[in-house]
Write a structure and sequence with these properties.
40% helix; 20 strands; alpha+beta
């Protein structure tokens, strides 16, 4: 299906100069993306007379670009041949010749940093934790500003209407978010809820959370699993009105969120979960994949994960003969009434390097892949006949792709910039019923409602020299500090005594003065 769709788009480009992802050397001022018909093919729209000629129409020579994405972003399967087929489809749709750079997912940022530090910049790359890295990379001179494209090119209007300050350095924007936003919530296996008589609600107090987890027989089941990524602790900080970083108060005055009683209370709560055996004792080594395997195989009763994991959890648990329903808890409410799930909006963003010789072509690739329905389907489902087959109107993963890690998270299909109605696609997904799809969509809408979405604060680079120089060290020090407290290698008082020394070493008070314009 994807192969047929993208092939149709390419053919249309030569006739109408309206290929999704292709533009002239100047940013486009309008979009004329072909729309899928009910049959799954594309129908041409009337080209806008002001639309510039596309490279595909004006030259037969493809533009050479290098693209660096995590290994699992090239069609989900990590098989080299499958990733190459994905690349070929993208090349056809954008008249490019793409050098594929695909570090493994768990080591992705380490490998990307090595590339950048060596001066071997990919033309396009997608950093994880983009809210932190994009500004840092811009300050180091790695990136081309994308401001003119976001402000002047109508193809990126959806992104323009979001908060992009986390990708800002000085007056320019250097990152293009890949989708509408994401949050993490708590998930519980219904069979465990029933077995242990837990009462799981959309919103639970921190005391209720502990009380319900305590009902689980720890000799049989891990009550609550968690990944090794300490950034996820923010979901607990929110319940105590704490924030793991520097942030402005109600009057716009910046202060250090770590040096608050609220943060100390949050640390004490997380440590109590761990000390009581309610939190996975192996959490510090859990990759996301390990944690997910534990919940869908029934080794754990609950975990923290993205709002869109419902269908995947249901399918995965069924595949290992541990089928059950899953119940969400969207937020915890602390003793002072504060709450909020884990807001990861802006986690991934696309960047164009300062060494890219054709940034316009790079932006065409990003538009095609992340702002068109066809590109989003390619990105989230792969290539028909390579990653999957369509049988009797149902998308079925191919065995060799599945063996190479290929799975489909149906929620991801509609989580990007294009408004894709999964129920209206000309195929359905294996194991997904109209009832479960509706439940999934209801959960997503609730998780993204203002009632439950937690805060996210990112300070634009350029406001303080000391902040720009020390933010990476500040963040890593917080993660190390939190880990030591929870695992018990330091008491809270000992950790804060060390933190006071660290704060002085980075001239923290002067940094706040700079941020506050003093």
């Amino acid at each position: 299906m994807m192969k047929r769709i993208l092939a149709s788009i390419l053919a249309l480009a030569a006739c109408t100069a309206a290929l999704a992802g292709c533009s002239s050397d100047s940013p486009s001022t309008s979009s004329s993306t072909p729309a899928p018909s009910s049959s799954g093919n594309v129908s041409a729209s009337t080209p806008n007379s002001s639309q510039p000629s596309s490279p595909a129409a004006s030259t037969s020579e493809p533009v050479e670009l290098s693209l660096c994405m995590s290994q699992i972003r090239w069609g989900v399967s990590v098989d080299d041949g499958h990733m190459q087929k994905f690349t070929e489809e993208l090349e056809k749709a954008t008249n490019t010749k793409i050098e594929m750079i695909a570090p493994t997912h768990n080591d992705y940022m380490e490998k990307l940093n090595v590339l950048l530090a060596s001066g071997d910049y990919p033309d396009i790359f997608i950093p994880q934790q983009a809210w932190d890295y994009v500004g840092q990379f811009a300050n180091r001179g790695y990136l081309t500003p994308l401001t003119k494209y976001i402000n002047d090119d109508a193809r990126f209007a959806a992104a323009k209407n979001t908060d992009l300050t986390m990708y800002q350095s000085g007056d320019d924007i250097y990152g293009l978010p890949l989708g509408k936003g994401n949050t993490k919530i708590f998930w519980f296996r219904k069979d465990m809820v029933d077995k242990y008589g837990m009462n799981i609600k959309d919103s639970m107090t921190t005391d209720e959370f502990i009380a319900e987890l305590s009902k689980v027989n720890k000799s049989e089941t891990i009550p609550f699993s968690f990944p090794k990524h300490i950034i996820n602790f923010q979901i607990f900080y929110n319940a105590f009105g704490a924030y793991g970083g520097i942030l402005p108060d109600a009057n716009g005055v910046y202060y250090d969120g770590i040096q608050t009683q609220e943060m100390k209370d949050a640390f004490a709560f997380i440590k109590s979960l761990y000390d009581q055996g309610l939190m996975d004792s192996e959490f510090i080594t859990n990759e996301n994949s390990n944690m997910r395997e534990k919940i869908y195989t029934g080794k754990t009763a609950s975990d923290i994960d993205y709002y869109g994991r419902y269908l995947n959890y249901c399918q995965s648990s069924e595949s290992v003969e541990k089928a059950t329903d899953f119940i969400p808890c969207f937020t915890l409410v602390g003793p002072n009434g504060t709450s909020g799930n884990l807001n990861e909006s802006g986690n991934e963003a696309a960047c164009v390097s300062v060494k890219c010789e054709n940034p316009d072509a790079a932006m065409d690739v990003l538009y095609c892949l992340f702002f068109t329905e066809e590109g989003r389907l390619l990105y989230t489902t792969g290539v028909e006949g390579v990653h999957y087959d369509i049988k009797d109107g149902v998308l079925i993963p191919r065995e060799d792709a599945a063996a190479a890690g290929y799975t489909i998270n149906v929620s991801d299909v509609s989580a990007g910039w294009p408004s894709i109605d999964v129920a209206a696609l000309p195929f359905s997904f294996e194991g997904v019923t109209p009832e479960t799809l509706k439940k999934n969509n209801d959960y997503i809408n609730k998780a993204l409602s203002p009632e439950y979405v937690g805060p996210i604060v990112k300070i634009p680079m350029g406001k303080s020299t000391l902040y720009d120089e020390n933010v990476a060290t500040y963040t890593s020090n917080l993660y190390e500090m939190a880990t030591k407290i929870v695992l018990g290698s330091q008491t809270i008082d000992e950790a804060y005594a060390d933190y006071e020394k660290f704060w002085k070493s980075i001239q923290g008070d002067k940094m706040l003065d700079e941020l506050n314009g003093k």
